[in-house]
Amino acid sequence: MKRVSSAEKLRPLLVAAIALVALPFLLHMLGLSLNSGIMIVALAVAAMGLNLCVGYTGLVSFGHSTWFGIGAYAAGLIQLHWFHGEIFLPLLGSMAVVAASSLVVGIFILRRRGVYFALLTLALAALAYTTAFRWTDLTGGENGLGGLKRGSIAGVPLDGDLAYYILIAVIGLCALYVLLRLVRSPFGHVLVAIRENPLRASFQGIPVERYRLAAFVISAVVTGLAGALVAFQNYFVSAESVSVSFAGELLAMVVIGGMRNMLGPALGALFFTLFRELFSIWTPNWLLWFGLSFVAFVMFSPEGIVGLWARLLRKWRPSAEEAAAMSKRKIYEGLPLPAFLRPEQLEGAVLEVSGVSKHFGGIHAVTNASLTVSAGEIHALIGPNGAGKTTLFNLVSGLYSADTGAIRLKGRDIQGVRSDLICHLGLARSFQITNLFRGLSIYENLRLSMQALHPARFNPWRDIDSYADIHAETAELTRFLGLEGIEDMAAGDLSYGGQRLVDLGIALGSKPRVLLLDEPLAGLAAAERERVANLVKNIATNIPVLIVEHDIDRLLGFSQTVTVMNQGEVLMTDCPQAVRRDIRVQEIYTGTGIPAVQHQRAESVEREASPLLRFERVNAFYGKSHILNDATLDVRAGEIVALLGRNGAGKSTLLKTLAGLVQSSSGIIAYRGNDIGPL
């Protein structure tokens, strides 16, 4: 893993300090006053606060002007009523007011996701604006709140623009330093994980709602601090500071500057202010042109100004392209399960599921299902598609609550317990479809699992690189999985087999006492299937495994107990040999054969020389994963052609390729003699 040096960590702070020194000279060259510089720095602080919410946590807020305005009004009212002529105590007081109000609001609006959360923040801004505009006794209404003073520091008055600029620049640097420390901490890294994949984060023991609320409050406080600084700059607060239009401008600064980069919003604030000041000289319609610029950034550079700079750097210094990245990994065969992953000696029943049922409307997904996973065993859960296997996994792991029944982990009832708490109790799972933090590296994916259980997991200040124990365990797990040498690759860039290994590693990193694996072999090449199967057997010597898999021969070969499900019910539980012989199991997989299928073509089909649909030597990929390999079939008029195969064999991909949903890389797809492959 590449460690970040101290110089790299402090580089944004150094760049910001140099920019703050140079900014007054740049403004003078452009014919602008230092007053514009004060506004640029204040807006940069506000946008950096919003970026913590939008860029790092994935919460798109259209209402952060609310906290900007509340901070401004709170600072003004505190100074006018209690601390006349002071500036620091009103600033601190305004931050406390914003923290308290955003905490209360966040508890309610964070219950909603996506567009609903965004709309609630928009409604909040509209409500705050109406309140500020009409509550004349408190805010001054349309006349605003005036009579504010900047005060002095150590006898130096702050009424001069230069003195106030120096103060606001120092506060801006302090805010940037705090935010940089925060995003480099375990707390900050978890925020990024939540942005990438909140569902997976919750199954790794991360209380997603608590982290989101904390990020929302911190983001609001930083933005509110900026509002208070602007209030003292103008000696006045108006309702415009909480307006919906200003909320949109703040969000535009973040997007134009570049989300997911701490200095990006500061660049956005600089761009917005200079655009407004310079274009308003030439045209009163400067906002129209700014809107067009915003659209251009969204369309052509979603990463903003920071993304443009990164793109230019790649052109000047192109990185070497790596082919067959998985070939660079180092595989160590026969490694034992790392000692830190081995739980205390387990005996007897570890996981007990008794009479569990789950209905979705009129659909009985699981009905009165029971099974027991004992220490030291691989317990297989098999059945045709739609049998209820994954639903049962979701019930056990806390994604759903059962309608009836009981689920016990080491004798403790976990029915209805949140998934993050179940993880802390010792149950972890993988997913049927790989569920990773795709934008993060392999190493970060695995490390997040480790730190989710660490005593210092909520630390918002200490740098993540300073946790030697977490890094040592992550490196050992990487080695065990056979991913050493490629740990800095983004998880989303891996082949499907590589993603399966990372998915398994994320679950293992939770240090479980029982492990649930949902089709870990699906879609893997033969060699990779053998290797993952060996890993599962290795793990099961210390951690009991409940596994769902459609590779029946392999599964029955290494499991000790097998539970068969069909139509939501448990058909039987027995040893693999008994399951293989059972006539009921044979029937649900291959049918009864009654009535007999006529394996004959009609005479008209026999006479048909050319097929109606020809699928010849077609290859298709998902990223680097080779899904269809020279697939060939013909369909003639009057035929019913059945497409059979286990999960991950490529059946759905073949149909998607026929329908044009997946582009083939080679081969011929012809319908009535016309090539439809490129369509």
Largest sheet: 6 strands, mixed
Strand order of the largest sheet: 10-11-12-7-13-14
Total number of helical segments? 25
What is the domain tally? 4
Mean pLDDT across residues = 87
Round the Cα radius of gyration to an integer and report it.
30 Å
What structural class do the secondary elements suggest? Answer: alpha+beta
Low-confidence stretches: none
Which of globular, elongated, flat, extended, rod-shaped describes the shape? elongated
Q: Helicity range of the residues?
A: 40-55%
N-C termini distance: 43 Å
Strand content: 5-15%
Tally of strands: 18
Written account of the structure:
The chain has 679 residues and is an alpha+beta fold. The protein folds into 4 domains: 8-244, no CATH class; 346-426 and 512-591, 3-Layer(aba) Sandwich (Rossmann fold), CATH 3.40.50.300; 438-510, no CATH class; 603-675, Rossmann fold (3-Layer(aba) Sandwich). It is built from 25 helices and 18 strands. Strand 2 (152-153) and strand 3 form a beta hairpin. Helix 17 crosses helix 18 (468-481). The chain is elongated and about 90 Å long.
